């Protein structure tokens, strides 16, 4: 399979429950009402942009989000808020996670005095499990991969009459994942406010790292609505060995990829893309790529050991996904047709999000120390 897909986007907004929720729900006031809410910083990395050969790189640092070290609290908290608004008697929330969403749900449930049961796939780092448990959740290691873990969570929720808050939609399960996506939009609204600090640059390219694709789809939704025809180009970045979205592009429909799911990018280690995210991604993405773990490691080191005046950013293996995708585009000779398709020049202004900090500190230290 080719490591990339050059898409010809239709630019059509899919009609349905998810896009109607994205259009009508405003999570921003809800997030602002949380006691530990603060916008996360947006930085410009001037030296890194010079070394990559692009005009500017802007990076939003989600390690500072709600004390959770990742962006996921935005989605889980809003979904829990919406569920409890309709049914305050829910006692237990449940989810499957590769780490960050589970911690976020456990935290969101505990702030409302509710229980959480969180299912994790095999090989989840002990620190990630401990972080979920530290928010008061019961953590169950299923010993299975991510997709099968989702299935187990789904069945357990039905059996026990728990409320499943998954960040991934499928046939018949769309509303709660849409609230999760609507929660993610707060981050993009913050970015629009933060442009002022940088004299309103025109952003030409946004790279999104993807697991099931819900986060990328919410970001795409934001930029399409905010900038319409003048929207930036979009790139989806997946791990080399977990490429549900790339496979779906190649097959022309949403599919479960055939791959070994061997990657250090745990948050992106998913199979079948979210049904509703895929519809948005398919219609607006310009390029989809898969990248080897080595790119993520190199970028983690570059952010941790910045040159000259760039700030130090602590970004985890999945956190660097978008920037690692940019590194691939700018340094891999095979990416030349992709750069042309995207119109990348030395003046291109790029936006990425570091979606997590060091969520597995032992792994993080091992990677960043190796200079
Ligand atoms: C740090 C991080 N970045 C990005 C993602 C991707 O989000 P999605 O699964 O919605 O594509 C995740 C998902 O868990 C994540 O944990």
Q: How many runs of DSSP E, i.e. beta strands?
A: 11
Portion of residues in beta strands equals 5-15%
Distance between the ends:
32 Å
Adjacency order of strands in the biggest sheet: 1-10-9-8-11-3-2
| Mass-distribution shape | globular
List SSEs in N-to-C order: EHHEHEHEHEHEHEHEHEHHEHHHEH
Radius of gyration over C-alpha positions, nearest whole angstrom? 19 Å
Main structural class: alpha/beta
The total of helices stands at: 15
CATH topological fold name of the largest domain = Rossmann fold
Spans with pLDDT under 50 lasting ≥5 residues?
none
What multimeric state do the chains show?
A: single chain
How many independent structural domains?
Answer: 2
Q: Would you state the CATH class of the largest domain?
A: Alpha Beta
Helix share, percent:
40-55%
- Secondary-structure arrangement, i.e. CATH architecture of the largest domain: 3-Layer(aba) Sandwich
**Bound ligand species:** pyridoxal-5'-phosphate
The average pLDDT is 97
